[in-house]
Amino acid sequence: MATEEQVKKSTSPAVFDTEAAVRLMKELRGTVATGTTKSYEWRSSQLKNLLKMVENSEKQICEALFSDLSKPEMEAFIHEIAMIKSSCKSALKKLKDWMKPEKAKTSIGTFPSSAEVVSEPLGVVLVISAWNYPLLVSVDPVIGAIAAGNAVVLKPSEISPATSSLLAKLFGEYLDNSAIKVVEGSVPETTALLEQKWDKIFYTGNGKVARVVMAAAAKHLTPVVLELGGKSPVLVDSNIDLTVTARRIVSGKWGCNNGQACVAPDYVITTKDYAPVLIHALKHQLVKFFGEDPMNSPDMSRIVNSNHFDRLKRLLDDDKVSGKIIHGGQTDKSNFKISPTILLDVPEDALIMSEEIFGPLLPIVTVEKIEDGIEFIDSRPKPLAAYLFTNTKQLKEQFVNNVSAGGVLINDVTLHLMVETIPFGGVGESGMGSYHGKFSFDAFSHKKAVLYRGFSGDAPARYPPYTPGKLRLLKALLDGSIVGIIRALLGFS
Question: In CA terms, which of 27, 94, 233, 440 is 20 to 30 Å from 426?
Fold first, then answer.
């Protein structure tokens, strides 16, 4: 008969500590050493299984996202499921081309020769994901890691426990567990993982944790991709389609996980004269989208947990801010709900204007002339995204040329994430590195330079003993001077 202690040990979950992390890494390095993950066949089979996993589990995924965030089914499908399916299909379609060596030009100094750039897997990589889009920001980097031929460990966010648990279950059922694993948990588990030597770490989240990740990576000289956030501004000119502009801002702010998105509009800048018109339009669209009582709208996600609710409540209760609310402001802690809230002319030194909001609060900043908005943006840390609504060509050019951001979008918000032919990533405090489409493949690949030469055409001039004539010939060769080469060969100085 088993003792009570033995029964407890057999039923309690295994602890994931440093020792477990070491065993995990040893197993994955062993898999990589066999060369299995390098083959096109393995990469494509895992991507097909990943696509099948998402297609077969749409209902479970939507239920998990609703449990974690009260995310509406349409948002869950469009912003997470559909984007993962598209990413998988694109990688499968283009994988052979991505894997092909890229031909490169050579110089006269290495003639005759040929060169190429070979994309090779980095090895074993770690993906640490975030809670706000817990399927998308978990699986999308994994697609790139698999496509590039790596073994990968996914650490989902413990703040979205239902999705984390589901991913662990589905990865175990659909994917090659000798090379692709999920580790659930919180700070202790993440710490144990970060103590290991990875070949790349991909982190999505906030700047505070990113500094911890980067410090851990630095101990092993491990490269990182940091997908962070920042205060993404929206500059609104007056010569626009007001209805479309208001609709797109409202959708991008409150229709994207209730503002809990790294690229959600963080604040709006417009002129003092145009602000009343824009505010009226935003209020009108909010009522159209979420009704007169948005706190009970089924089309709006809730705040993820009590900590984030309290953080947002503190931003609202700030003495510098509480008197600036011109729409909304209602809160319900029992249901983690905060209504869509608009604030006007909040002081620049208020916390809400320095901290990324990541919630349903939208300050509006007014300036004398629209160009002043560009100066305002440039005076602050570089955001992950910057948006402009205008019909003026000159203002578009000025915005693109002068605003440094991870990405820029003109006359819409957030949609640049859907374009896989452009990179998605931050700059400065909003992150480093990028992904999406081939950029994901590149993020998890080493670009190996290869130069091929034969044994013919060996130039004696490169070898000792060195003479003035050899020096003249080498200078002419390296300068690409045909006349100089001829003169050197003929013995002219």
Answer: 94
**Is residue 262 flagged as an active site residue?**
yes
Cα–Cα dist 329/346, whole Å: 14
Mean pLDDT over the full length of the chain = 95
Burial grade of 4 (CB within 10 A; 0-12, 13-18, 19 or more): exposed
* Residue 41 structure tokens: 């066949």
Please classify residue 134 by burial: count the beta carbons closer than 10 Å to its beta carbon, then call 0-12 exposed, 13-18 middle and 19+ buried. buried
Which amino acid is residue 59, in one-letter code?
K
Lowest mean pLDDT among 237-246, 326-335, 405-414, 471-480: 471-480
**Nearest-angstrom CA–CA distance, 400 and 469:** 53
pLDDT digits (tens, 9 = 90+) for 324-363: 999 999 999 999 999 999 999 999 999 999 999 999 999 9
pLDDT band (50, 70, 90) for residue 13: low
Please name which of 374, 375, 380, 430 lies closest in space to residue 407, comparing C-alpha atoms.
430
Instruction: Tell me which of 189, 227, 356, 429 is the catalytic residue.
Output: 227
Q: Which residue type does 410 have?
A: I
pTM attached to this predicted model: 0.94
| C-beta of residue 452 within 8 angstroms of C-beta of residue 114 | yes
- 259 touches 304 (CB < 8 A): no
Separation of alpha carbons 463 and 260, rounded Å:
64
pLDDT at 6 over 80: no
Active site residue 227: yes
Q: What pLDDT band is residue 384 in, cutting at 50, 70 and 90? A: very high
Q: Is 473's pLDDT higher than 90? A: no
Of 88, 262, 356, 429, catalytic: 262
